[in-house]
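look at this stuff:

>
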Amino acid sequence: MHISKVSLINYRNFSNAKFLFDKGVNTIIGENGSGKTNLFRGIRLLLDETMRRSAIRLNENDFFRGIGKWQGHWIIISIEFQEVSQDEAIQALFLHGTGDIQSVGKASYNLIFRPNSIIRNELSLLLPDDNFGLNNILEKISIDDYETILTGKSSIDFNDPESYKSIVGDFENVIFPDELDLSEIGGRVPQALYMPRELSFTFIQALRDVVSDFRGNRNNPLYTLLKNKSGEIDDQNFKSIIDQVAQLNTSIEEYEDVVNVRDDIELTLSDTLGDTYAPNSLSIKSDLSTKAEQLFQSLKLFVSESDDGYEGNISEMSLGGANMIYLTLKLLEFKYQHNRETIANFLLIEEPEAHIHTHIQKTLFDKVQFENTQIIYSTHSPHISESSNVEQINIIGKVDNAFEAFQPTTGLSPSQINKVQRYLDAVRSNLLFAKSVVLVEGDSEEILIPSMFKKVLGISLDELGISLINIGSTGFENVAQLFHQQRIRKRCSIITDHDSAFFDTTKLDADSDFVNKRKRKARGSAKSGQRRKVALDKLCNSSDWLFAHYAKHTLEVDLILEGNANYFEDILNEVYSDSATIKKAKKQLASQNIENSGRRALTMAKSCGKGWFAILLANSLDSNFKIPRYILDAVFSASSMNDERIVFRIIKFRFNFFLNDYKSDKKHVDETTGEDDVWYEKWKTYLEARKKAIESLYEVIVNYESDSCQINDLKNSFCKHFPDDLFTYVLVAL
C-alpha cells in the first residue's frame, strides 16, 4: 500500500493543494516558506505515532490566512492510498465506495476540523441570501466550537471547489447542507483502530541542530535505537549484566576511601549536631542503575573523523558529519520498524542536504531505498532533484497568493517525459526551484544578461526571483512544455534569436565564392529563425505561462543596433593584439552601417569564442549600457514586478546614476567654458533641465521613504522626469 494523493484544504499556507505520489521515491521541491514542512506535518498528523494524539486538535492559526474569516470553514487533510490488497483487510474500513476491496484497491483516511453539530445545524437552517443571519452565527463562533474527526470510506473529491461547497456550504449565497447529506466525507474511524500503530512510519526532520538531539533522551536517535532493540535481549543474558552492575555498586561502596569518607561525615555530624539531632544512619551508595532503560541512557556515541584515530563526542564533529550520523541512526530506526508486520511502510525525509557535500547528497538519494517502502523527500538541493524521477516530483509554487502543488509531467507522453528527464541536470534543474524562469540559447546570454541588470538597474535576477537557464541550443520545446496550466504554473520567458539577415542576401556575387557562401548561410539562418519563431509562438499560444521574445538578428548585432558600440570598442585590445586590426575594427564599429558594425561584432565574438567574449564585454558594462527591449520584455514578463521594494530599489539606483552622471557632465562643461559658446550654452540648458528633474525626483523619493506618498507617485514622477530611461519603458510596459 502506498500514498497516491494528499489533499490540503484551508490548511496553513495551502488553500487547495493536491499532491500526487507514486510507489518508491518521491520528491517535494519548493522555496523557503512554501509549505514543505506544513505538508509533512499534515501527513504526520494522520500517520505518525510519535505525534501527540492531542495534535490533531487544530487551532485558528492552522487556517489558511487568505480565507479571511476562518469561522465556519473547514480544514481538511486527506490521504488517499492505492494498492490496498486483501491481505490488508484492516483497510476495508477506509475503502472507497462499497465495491470489493480487491477490485477497487483504493482507500482514504481524512482529518476534518469543522464546527460542531450545533453550529452546523444553525447554518443549515439559514435561508438563501440571509447574510445578516449568517454573520450573526459566524461572529459568535470560537475555536472551542470546533471538533476534529477522522474518517474513512470518503467518496468526494475534496479538491473540487464545488464539492467543498456541497459539504461545507456556500458562504456567498448562504446555502448550507443538511447534516444528513454529509455521507460523502466518509464514516468516522473507530477509536480502537489507531492507524499509526498499523504502519511503519519514520519522519527524519531537517538536519539543522542534530547535536542538541543527541544530548537529550526524548529525541536522541541512539537511545531510541537501543530502547527498541532492548526488547530483543534475552532476559537471562541481561540478568548477568544486572548482577555485574550490582556487584560493581557494592565494590564502589566498600572501597576503603569511600568507607572512610562516610565515617568522617558521620563523626562530623555527631560533633556538630550532637547524637540527638544527628541522622540515625548514613551511607554512600553507588547509583549505577540496574535497569536496562537507564543503562542505555548512559551510553554515548563517539566517532573519529580524522586519520589519527581520535574518537570524539558527537558534539566535536563537523556539522555535516553529525548530520550523516544522525541520518544513519534514523534510517536504522526505520529498519527496525520495517521488520515488524505492518500494512505499509513510509519514510519522510525533510531537507537531508544541510551541510552535506554534493556527492554525498546524490549518493544518499540513490542508496536510501527499502523494499516495499514509500519514501518522500523534501529538498532545496538541485543535486537531489537531478537524481529524482521527474514523474515523481511535486513542485510547490505560489499562484494568486496561495501555494499550490504542480506535477511537471501531467499530460506529457512517455517520449516527452524521457526527454525532460534526460535534460534536467544539476544546473538546469534549478528551474524547478525558481519563482520564474528565463530560458536562453547560449553562453553569451547566460553571461551577459545578469550583468546587464546588475550594472544598469542595480538588481540581480535572483532578487527578481528569476532563474536564467542556458538551454545550450535553440531546442526550447522539451523544457518549455513544462510551463503549462496542467503542469508548472510559473511564468517562463524564452529569449532567442530571430536570425534575420542584417545585410542584403538577395544578390549573389559572381566574383566571390566567400561572399556567396556567407549570404547563403545567412539565408538559411533566417529561414531557420522564422521556423523557430512559428513553432515557439504556437507553443506559447497554448500556455498562459509561456512567453517568447526574439532578437531581431542575433544578440551581438542587436547590442550594436541598440547603441552600445562603444562597449565593444573598449575591449578591442583584449580581443586583438595587432594594431592594424584594432584600428580597422574600431572604424567598423563606429560605422552607421549595421552591415559593417554588426559583422565586426560577430567577428570579435567568433575570434575569442562567444563565452569568453561575453565575459570581456560584461566586465566593460556600466549604468549607461542600453539593454535591448526584447531582453527587458522577457525578464519583466517572467517577473511580475509586484514587489514595490524592488521597484523602489531600482528607482533609487537609477537616481544615484543620474546624479553622478550630472555631476560628471557639469564638471566637464565647467572645465571647457569658453572653447565653444554654442556648445556650452546647449549643454548648460540641458544640465539645468537635468538638475531640475533630479531634484524633483529626489523630493518624491524622500516623501516615499517617509511614507508621505505611495509607490505609484514615485513611478509617475520617475516616468515624467526621465521619459527616455530604460526603466521608464519597463514601468510603462508593465
